[in-house]
Design a protein that fits this description.
This protein has 477 residues and is an alpha/beta fold. It has three domains: 1-78; 81-280, no CATH class; 306-475, Rossmann fold. The chain has 18 helices and six strands. Strands 3-2-1-4-5-6 form a six-stranded parallel β-sheet. Strand 4, helix 17 and strand 5 form a beta-alpha-beta unit. It is elongated and about 85 Å long. The N and C termini lie far apart (72 Å). The structure holds NADP nicotinamide-adenine-dinucleotide phosphate.
């Protein structure tokens, strides 16, 4: 077996590990192992690539690996779970930047060598190589600046509101046309000065396009955008793989590209919005408050104390806990688990109802509840729990708002009309934990809180849950 065959064999093994890992990430029980398997695939791919390529100087590789490893370990330990979307945005951006640099470096090599010497030493043909360099720089560039902007919005470094102005789509359209023109010139021209002009045009404008593309999208829609940018960073890596003829980079890039698109579509479906609506509607630009559309409910907010909440819960036999973004903000998952355990010891059957877009990133609630060791069997999906909801004695809504807002089903004027929700309002009693009158991500009122069977348990979710848990403990001894 010659070296090339061995290398490609190792790349196939790495690719299989990526695919198996991705598949295992789809289920909570196997997700951790899936992650490890994919990481193993990446290790194989890296080691083989380093041995395969004629690395000029390993010193820089070792320095890069060490610095990267330290940053990675620190981030993994320091970054809070609620900041994970920002973190992913940054990682996507750096992925895009890496592909851009690969394309740029290859262009520099061609410019230094000239096509004749380049083609004698490397495989490829001028049109193909110039095209994949164009794609790596274009997609990598817009992913880089778009991700940085998404990060800045999520981290509240800039306003999360969509920035919308007249003629915006025309400007973006013009940018795309100029980038394509620059690309065509760089690919087809033979005069190095003209190629340089084309290359510079599409490089700079790609960076501008990433920024202007994310500008009109609201901060709350950033998770969908980040998933889309993740997909783009994969496609950029795929193009970079073609630039340097690296098979495993092509495969890994395709996997990231397709899984990112699938995830974006899943999120959009769960919000009952199209991808185009998320990207171009400027959702959240105006204070969208739905007041009294079809089926509006008149009523008042009825506070309840932790002691009274305990009394209601102590008598309950069927309890459903519906976590939302507020649980993530207050990091109340351990108290939630403790309360669930106490309820079960008291003879109640407890389920956790998980909405697919509860929180701010896919699987947000699952990750937090897994951190608190809530058994997987207790987690129930929206479609399973909804038919059971009228049989529930108590629904405890912990920092969830939009995902339990009945306006989504009833109020045609509501911006979230059509979004599937967990029907918490159908439970006999609903106890809602939140700090005050704060709206959810969509910025609209929630009729659930005004219903006759709803009670508001005000305060930070972690401390109010702690109070209810203390009540349980004081009674039991
Ligand atoms: P939500 O609608 O954002 O509501 C969160 C609620 O938590 C707020 O009303 C807030 O009210 C309360 N809260 C905040 N901090 C709290 C604390 N420390 N203690 C107690 N309560 C607290 O959350 P959601 O119901 O989970 O809905 C998620 C939203 O995000 C959906 O609209 C979804 O479409 C959107 N989204 C999700 C994803 C995703 O991937 N998961 C992606 C894109 C968009 P107070 O201020 O009064 O406390």
């Amino acid at each position: 077996m010659n070296a090339d065959t061995l290398i490609n064999f190792a790349y196939i093994v790495a690719s299989i590990l990526f695919i198996l890992g991705l598949k295992m990430l789809g289920r909570q029980a196997s997700a951790r192992r899936g992650n490890l398997l994919s990481a193993l695939g990446m290790l194989i791919a890296l080691v083989v690539t380093l041995l395969d390529r004629q690395v000029v100087n390993f010193t820089w590789i070792v320095i890069g690996l060490s610095v990267g490893a330290v940053i990675g370990v620190v981030c993994a330990r320091v970054v809070k779970m609620t900041s994970m979307p920002e973190m992913v945005a940054l990682l996507n951006g750096f992925g895009g930047l890496a592909s851009l640099l690969v394309g740029w470096a290859e262009y520099g090599k061609i410019r230094a060598y000239g096509w004749d010497r380049y083609l004698a030493e490397f495989t490829g043909n001028p049109v193909f190589t110039s095209t994949v360099i164009f794609l790596a720089v274009l997609i990598g560039g817009l992913t880089f600046t778009g991700s940085l902007y998404a990060f800045a919005k999520l981290a509240a470094w800039v306003s999360g509101k969509p920035v919308i102005f007249r003629g915006q789509h025309v400007i973006n359209g013009l940018l795309v046309l100029l980038i394509l023109a620059g690309g065509a010139v760089a690919i087809l021209a033979s005069d190095p000065a003209i190629v340089l002009a084309g290359f510079t045009t599409y490089l700079v404008l790609s960076l501008v396009l990433g920024w202007t593309f994310v500008m009109p999208i609201g901060g709350g829609d950033m998770p969908v955008v980040i998933s889309l940018l993740n997909s783009l960073s994969g496609l950029a890596a795929c193009a970079a793989g073609f630039v340097i003829s690296n098979n495993v980079l092509i495969v890994a890039g395709c996997l990231v590209g397709t899984s990112g698109v699938i995830l974006s579509i899943i999120m959009c479906k769960a919000m009952n919005r199209s991808l185009l609506n998320v990207l171009f509607s400027g959702f959240g630009a105006s204070a969208a408050v739905s007041e009294g559309g079809d089926g509006a409910v008149q009523g008042e907010l009825k506070p309840i104390s932790p002691e009274d909440a305990f009394a209601v819960l102590e008598a309950a036999r069927q309890v459903v806990i519906i976590p939302g973004y507020g649980m993530a903000v207050s990091q109340a998952q351990h108290q939630v688990r403790e309360l669930a355990d106490l309820l079960e010891q008291n003879g109640a059957e407890v389920r956790f109802a998980i909405h697919p877009v509860a929180g701010r990133m896919p699987g947000h609630m699952n990750v937090l509840l897994a951190e608190a060791s809530v058994p997987y069997e207790q987690l129930v999906e929206m479609d399973t729990i909804n038919p059971m909801m009228p049989t529930m004695d108590v629904a405890i809504v912990i920092g969830a708002n939009d995902v339990v807002n009945p306006a989504a089903a009833r109020d045609k004027a509501s911006p979230i009309y059509g979004m599937p929700i967990i029907n918490a309002h159908e439970a006999r009693t609903v106890i809602c934990l939140k700090r005050g009158k704060g709206a959810g991500f969509s910025g609209i009122e929630n009729q659930l809180f005004l219903l006759p069977n709803s009670r508001m348990l005000y305060g930070d979710a972690k401390s109010t849950l702690q109070s209810v848990v203390s009540e349980f403990k004081s009674i039991s001894g």
